Amino acid sequence: MIADTTKRAASCREHHAGAPSPSITPDVTFSERKSQWRRQMTQRLCRVSTLEWQAAGSRIAATLETIEAWRRAHRIAVYMNTVSEVPTALPIEACRQRQCEIYLPIYDRCRRHYVPAAWHANDPLHRGAYGMLEPVTPRWAPAVALDVILAPGRAFTRTGTRLGRGGGHYDRFLAAPWAAGAVTIGLALECQLVDDDLADTHDIGMDWVVTEKEIYAGRSASAVMPRRTDRSRTNMKERNRDHLVSPGKEQNK
Known about the structure:
- By secondary structure, this protein is an alpha/beta fold.
- The protein is globular, with a radius of gyration of 17 Å.
- It has helices spanning 2-16, 30-46, 50-64, 68-72, 89-97, 169-175, 227-240; strands at residues 75-77, 101-108, 113-119, 125-127, 133-135, 139-140, 148-151, 155-156, 162-163, 183-187, 208-210, 215-217.
- The chain contains seven helices and twelve strands.
- The strands form three sheets. The chain has an eight-stranded mixed sheet. The protein has a two-stranded antiparallel sheet with strand order 4-5.
- It has one domain (2-240): NagB/RpiA/CoA transferase-like (Rossmann fold).
- β8 and β9 (162-163) form a beta hairpin.
C-alpha cells in the first residue's frame, strides 16, 4: 500500500513538476492563463491521497527547521489547511513547543478582508468563511508585527511567485502593515511548481517555497524575483492602508 502510494506520488512529481501542461492554452490573456493553471492544479490536487499529503507534510515540516528565520521567529502566522493544502499540524506543534505566538489569517466580515487573530491550541474552532477552520471568538491582532507567515497556494514558481485562488485575499494579507517585516514561506507539493511566469502587479512573492522534495529561494535570494513583484509589495501596502480600516468590496477567496 505504502509502496503504491509512493509510486503514485513520484509519478505526480515527474509528470507535473515545472513542466508546461498540454491543457494550458498558449494564446490567451494573462488572466485566463492563470485561471487555466488554477483549474489544472485543482484537478491535480484532487488526485493526491491523504497518505501522500501526510507524508509530504512531514518532510516539509522537517525542511522548515533548516530555515533560520523560521527557527528564530516568535510571532508566526499559520493557515489552517483545507484538504487540498499542505498540512500545517506539525509546524503548529513546533510553534507550540517553542512557545511562539501563533496567529491565524481570519476573514473579518466587518473589514471584509483577512486579519491576523491570536490563537491558542485550546481555543475552540469552527468552519468559518470559505469552509476554513477559525476560532469561534477571534482575538483580532491587527497591530501585531509578524516574523514569519506560512502561505498556501494553488501553484508556485521556483523563484517565489505565488498563484492563489483568485480572490486576492492572501495578497492583501501579505501586503498589510502586520506583514511588513515578515519572512514569507510558501508550502506546496512539488507537483504544484510551474515554470510559467505568473507574477502580476498585485502579487506578493514568497521569500521561500518549501516542497516535500526541495527548498527554493525566492525574494530572499539576490534579484531572483521579478522587480514588479517587489515593487507591488510596497504599492499594495499603500493602496490597502485605508482598506484595512474600512469595509471594501468582498471578493471570492
